Amino acid sequence: MSLPAMKIKxxxxxxxxxxxxxxxxxxxxxxxxxNGRLPFSGTLTVQVPETGLPDHNRRGPSEAALQAVGSIAxxxxxxxxxxxxxxxx
Length: 89
Known about the structure:
By secondary structure, the protein is α+β, with helices and mostly antiparallel strands. The protein is 28% helix and 36% strand. It has one domain.
């Protein structure tokens, strides 16, 4: 068994365009890594309120990707700890 690892790369950050409603920004993020047992890789596109990424102007756009992925992981762990599963469609 290997140690968990993850690499996150911001591919794009858009403030306007088709399907993006203010005050949201759209982040497209490349994620690859492993949870220690299962390797994974893929691209995630997510919209979040720009106010939810307060540091991205100061720390750079890559920090916005890290904050977005962290928020998703935090929501998943919170549901898991409450013995709830995300809604599957």
